[in-house]
């Protein structure tokens, strides 16, 4: 079963709230725009409690936490005027549901595969006669996805390890042809400066290095 938090979807909105005391004092209707949050619970047909967004939800370690702070991502989307989307895998990704079934589930405040897999008891019954089948299929879908994700991660780790082993065991690279030619030319010039004569033919780099060492010993 998924975490119960998957069943809760906050929806922030602004509503004009009648101000009774101010209206009586002014002798006219007075309203105030107030930011609210509607708590939608998967499978609940008629229950969606609404609270002021900046009202204290609860105290944690002695510090007050508002509803806006409880759901920071959703509140940020609301404040920016963007669409508020439930966390999780959308119903559109579940191949075993028809469009009509998805629409029915959304009307019952079920927006994600995680919520569908988590719903229990009377809330599950509210989803209709195929509720148990939908829940089982959603659980299987999430389990398969989790297993596939772990397999991909493991395969990536194996490939990374193989690459590291190959790098550690690889033989030292041979000097580049251009670099070797430049080094041979440098040693030939040093030999010519020391003896007045460049080496004849095309001796190897090792031979040139030995010749230069012998000259230095004599000098």
Radius of gyration: 37 Å
Tally of strands:
5
Strand content: 15-25%
Q: How would you classify the helix and strand content by structural class?
A: alpha+beta
**Uncertain residue segments:** none
Oligomer: single chain
Major sheet summary line: 3 strands, antiparallel
Name the strands of the widest sheet in spatial order: 1-2-3
Mean pLDDT: 87
Identify the overall geometry.
Answer: elongated
Cα distance spanning the termini: 86 Å
Order of helices and strands: EHEEEEHHHHHHHH
How many domain units? 2
Approximate helicity band: 40-55%
Helical element count?
9
Structure overview:
- 51% of the residues lie in helices and 16% in strands.
- It has 219 residues and is of the alpha+beta class.
- Helix 8 runs parallel beside helix 9.
- The chain has 2 domains: 4-145, no CATH class; 177-218.
- The chain has a 3-stranded antiparallel beta sheet with strand order 1-2-3, with helices on one face.
Features:
9 helices; 2 domains; three-stranded antiparallel beta sheet; two-stranded antiparallel sheet; elongated; alpha+beta; 219 residues
Topology:
Layout: E1 8-18, H1 20-26, E2 31-41, E3 50-52, E4 56-60, E5 63-66, H2 67-70, H3 72-79, H4 99-107, H5 113-118, H6 121-125, H7 131-169, H8 177-195, H9 205-218
């Amino acid at each position: 079963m998924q975490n119960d938090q998957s069943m809760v979807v906050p929806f922030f909105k602004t509503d004009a709230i009648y101000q009774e005391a101010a209206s009586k004092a002014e002798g006219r209707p007075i309203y105030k725009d107030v930011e609210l949050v509607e708590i939608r619970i998967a499978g609940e047909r008629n229950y969606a409690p609404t609270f002021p967004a900046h009202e204290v939800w609860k105290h944690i370690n002695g510090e007050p936490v508002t509803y806006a702070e409880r759901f920071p991502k959703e509140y940020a989307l609301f404040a920016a005027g963007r669409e508020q989307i439930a966390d999780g895998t959308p119903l559109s990704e579940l191949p075993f549901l028809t469009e009509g079934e998805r629409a029915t589930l959304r009307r019952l405040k079920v927006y994600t595969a995680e919520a569908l897999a988590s719903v229990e008891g009377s809330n599950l019954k509210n989803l209709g006669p195929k509720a148990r089948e939908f829940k089982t299929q959603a659980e299987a879908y999430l389990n398969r996805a989790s297993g596939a994700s772990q397999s991909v991660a493991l395969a990536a780790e194996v490939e990374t390890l193989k690459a590291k082993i190959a790098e550690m065991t690889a033989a030292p690279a041979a000097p580049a042809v251009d670099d070797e030619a430049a080094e041979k030319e440098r040693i030939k010039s040093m030999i010519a400066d020391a003896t007045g004569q460049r080496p004849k033919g095309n001796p190897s780099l090792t031979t040139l290095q030995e010749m230069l060492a012998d000259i230095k010993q004599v000098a």
